[in-house]
Each structure stands twice: as C-alpha cells, then as structure tokens.
C-alpha cells in the first residue's frame, strides 16, 4: 500500500500524511513492505567458508551477525570482483538449495 493510497483512504493530501509521519503521529511501517520477489531473492541461504574452513550457514544478514562483519562485506564476497582479487583470508559463499 502506497502513501497515496493511504492518504486517499483518510481523505487527506499526501503531503499532510508525510507531515503527520514526520511529527511522529503515524508509524510508517505500514507501507514499507517488500514484494515477494525481492524478499525471496534476498533470503537465500549460504554456507560460508574462510580459507576452506566452515564458518556457518545463513542469509547475508545472519552471516554478518555471526562473523561481526557488515552485510555489504558479506555480499561483496559473493561478487566476481572479489573472486578475481588475491586475499590473505579467502572467503567463499556456497548457495544452499
């Protein structure tokens, strides 16, 4: 549901709805929903290895918590750019079906 649709239901303008949100009267989590395709795409599980040693299994977010690294770092380990460079500690992500 978009902000415009909510504003139409409340019979107010969208800018007025945004003012209520900014003032703290409304919680904006209602329209921050992911569509199913995006959610499924980002919730793949991966096995993570460091220099051939098994670290754990989980989504990017779960692996970030487990290794105390950022989610962006974990995603970078899965890119071709990372695979082409030489590293002292080599991380490898294997997709779990």
UniProtKB/TrEMBL annotation:
Any idea what this protein is called?
Answer: Uncharacterized protein
The organism's taxonomy opens as: Bacteria, Bacillati, Bacillota, Bacilli, Lactobacillales
């Amino acid at each position: 549901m978009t902000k415009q649709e909510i504003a139409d239901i409340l019979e107010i303008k969208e800018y007025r709805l945004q003012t209520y949100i900014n003032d703290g009267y409304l919680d904006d989590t209602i329209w921050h929903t992911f569509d199913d395709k995006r959610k499924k795409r980002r919730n793949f599980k991966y096995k993570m290895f460091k220099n051939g040693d098994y670290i754990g299994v989980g989504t990017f977010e779960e692996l970030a918590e487990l290794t105390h690294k950022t989610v962006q770092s974990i995603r970078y380990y899965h890119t071709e750019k990372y695979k082409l460079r030489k590293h002292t500690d080599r991380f490898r992500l294997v997709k779990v079906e």
